[in-house]
Amino acid sequence: MPADLPDASACPRLAVRAILMHENRVLMVNAYPDGQSPLMCAPGGGVEAGSSLPENLLREVHEETGLRIVVGAPCLVNEFHVPGGSFHQVDVYFRCELAPGTQANPDPAWEDTQRIVSDRRWLTEAELAQIPHKPDSLRAVAFGRDGTVSYDPLEPLVR
Length: 159
Description:
Blueprint: E1 13-22, E2 25-30, E3 44-46, H1 53-65, E4 69-81, E5 88-98, E6 119-123, H2 125-129, H3 138-143, E7 150-156
Parallel strand pairs: 1-5, 4-7
Antiparallel strand pairs: 1-2, 1-3, 2-6, 4-5
C-alpha cells in the first residue's frame, strides 16, 4: 500500500505487486513509514509510464526488498479505495520467483529507496491469517493451488 495516498480523482492509480513464494511462505512488507499501520501487503508499487508491468514490478520489488525476481503470470486484480476520499487504486498481482542465485532472506539492513518499508517478512499461511493484510483475497490466491486469475472487487482500505 502506498505510504502517501495521492489524489487520484482523475483516474485510478495503477500498481503492480508480487506474490513471491519461497518454501511455502509468501513475502509481505509493511509500506507505512515508521510502521504507522500494522497493515502488510505484497511488495510492489506504482507503475511508471513507458515501462511494462513486469519491468515496473522488477524495479519495485528490488527497491522495497533488495531482491531480484523473475516475474510470472498475473494471478489477481484487486481494487481498493479510501471511503469518502478520492484515492482509488488498481493492483495487478503476478506470481513471481526468486531470480537464480538470489538469497531468500533480504538483508536486514536494507533500506528501500524511499525509506517507507518498515518490515519485510516471509509468512506461512497460518501466520498471514493472524496479521492485518490487504487485499482480503491475498491469502487464498498466494496459497491456492488452482492457478486461476482472481478478481477482488473494490474494497475499502483500512489502516
